[in-house]
Design goal:
Structural class: alpha+beta
Number of strands: 5
Helix content: 40-55%
Distance between the termini: 86 Å
Order of helices and strands: HHHEEHEEEH
Number of helices: 5
Shape: globular
């Protein structure tokens, strides 16, 4: 009888310890996922690592096409634009938000252009100041290549006609 009670107690202790370990590891995974979902320089660096891995894999002659799968988050894309690409964009990015859908990507941004951004007074009159820009399109990626077809553009809430997008 004592032996059965000791075995039962040992099983309960082992189950409790396993539960604590499982709970802690799940909490750590949730914390890591939450941290990856933040717009930050770290998320931008995470996307850069993925981009570099894709480029490296593309140069490997023995790699099978479609052998790897890379997932990107909205936060990584937002972070990459805000922290890695911003110096190359000729306007100040006030806000930038990405929405990923099934084979689609949309970017909603607010940009501020300097009063004399282009040096052309006519153009500067139109683009100078702060503007909201919404871009939406179809994104397909296969074999280390991506294709983006622009479908919608809205500037300050006004939809740009499709004929102008295609031009």
């Amino acid at each position: 009888m004592k032996k059965t009670i000791l075995i039962a107690a040992a099983v309960v202790v082992l189950l409790a310890a396993g539960g604590v370990i499982a709970f802690r590891s799940l909490s750590a995974e949730k914390a890591a996922a939450a941290q990856a979902a933040e717009v930050s320089p770290k998320s931008a660096a995470s996307l850069q690592v993925k981009i570099d891995a894709i480029k490296k894999a593309d140069k490997m002659p023995d790699r099978l096409p479609g052998a790897s799968h890379v997932e990107l988050s909205e936060a990584e894309l937002e972070s990459y634009v805000l922290y890695s690409l911003a110096p190359d964009i000729p306007a100040q990015i006030d806000s930038f938000h990405v929405q990923l859908g099934q084979d689609t990507v949309a970017a909603d941004t607010q940009l501020t252009f300097a009063a004399k951004a282009t040096g052309n007074p006519v153009v500067d009159t139109f683009i100078g100041g702060t503007h909201n820009l919404l871009l939406k399109g179809k994104l397909v990626a296969q074999q280390s290549r991506g294709k983006f077809d622009l479908e919608e553009v809205h500037i300050d809430g006004i939809r740009v006609p499709t004929i102008l997008i295609q031009a």
